[in-house]
Amino acid sequence: MFRSFTERRARKEQERQRELSVRLRSPEPEVRAAAAGEIAQERDTAWAIRELAQAMDREPSPAWFDGIAGPFCDAVCRDRAVRERVERMFAAHGDAPADLVRAWTAFLSEFGAGAALDTVDDELAAEVGARLRRVGEQGGKFRGLSGRDPESLDYVVTFGVTVELLHDAVRRYAPLPADDIDRARRAARETLERALAHPVESDDRYGLLVSLCERQDDETWADRQLEALRIREALDLCGSAAPDRVALGVETLAITLHINDVSLHDAVRETLDRLCVPDQDPFIFSEVLSCYSALHADRRLDDPPVELFLAALGHPDPLVRANAAGGLDTIAPGLPEESRAVAALIEAMEHDPDIEVARSAAYALATIRCTEEADSRAASAALARQAGSPDPGLRVASVDGALHRDEPGAYDLLTAELRRPDVEARFVSSVGFFLDIGKQPSKDVTARWTRLLEALRQGGWTDRPNEHEDGDEMEPDFRMALLELTLDKLRAYDT
Fold this sequence. Notes:
By secondary structure, this protein is an all-alpha fold. Helix content is 69%, strand content 0%. The protein has 24 helices and no strands. The relative contact order is 0.04.
């Protein structure tokens, strides 16, 4: 008996769905992403949304998450009823992140993707709120998607970015299994005890703390929760009655905040405020200042302690003054104290007796994003006066400041430094850095830089660090790797 056309088509569709479903579970991320893209275009949108919702919730790699989330959004946008439901969700809860997370997880649970969350962790709610604010600041009107053309570029981008950021946060803040927590806590405490045995500011201590705090090469969904665990361990040390443990805690906190995404904002801020007491140990105070700037850079503080930083520029200890200067470029912009901060940084750069403080102030002037044009001009003029400084750290700041602000002649300043046969490695680094952040020198300029760097390589520059360089900058292997990497970037830019 012959099957009807409808039956044959239904059977063929079922077979295709089974094949796509198998591919969507492949151990190879490229295969999963390709399958997701095909599923998003399937005629049966209900099936496609269910498959992709479940895949989005089980995707093992954060690096490949957008390869599943993007097609999920495409499938949702093809189903009018489901799309409009998400639009209403964003409109109703866009200003209430905890409610949005509850509504979102309940929505996904209907498709078999995870469990609906009745209780939303404060950290997750804060993270979602910060992400949504960034979407809004970049022009994404996610609360007003209803009634707009779902095929327009603006709609597709806003819808997709909002969904991806929302569910990415939900995945990253999922609680860890108890055994994983115990194992990570034991490892953290063992490393901290080993670090405690080494002197403050020693290379051995710093190396142990960096190894504890830095992420592994392959990013995982557990990273954020593991970082939060290490921050809690650091905060516990900061509450100790033993000064050496407090110093270890705040040093660990500073390293963690600078190399990872920031967690536990409120708890960290409370601890930092508590440590700002009269006659605080200079090392502890300097690390507290470093933590404040990292905290503010990740998520703007409601009341950044800019007066604390300005006062710290007059501290008797140069380490405190250096960290105060180094944080003002982050803390001060846009505040009423911005002009005072720029003036104080200029004063420190030009008159502080400690060269490290002067360098910190100079680089803060190079990178500060002033909201007042007069402040930007003052910073620029002060840095220009350092272009002929005998100290390469001040000259780097002078060059980098001009490049950051796209000032006329900025590329010529860097070219002049690269012409020196004993040019410091940090100027070579500036070439790659400014290409990485999107600066667009002319091809004539980059061709000149390429010739100069090739001449350095042929002239044995890698084996000739000068008296102003230290650390890795002294190592021939490091210098050769830096030179090759920078030349590769120049060649890529010129093609």
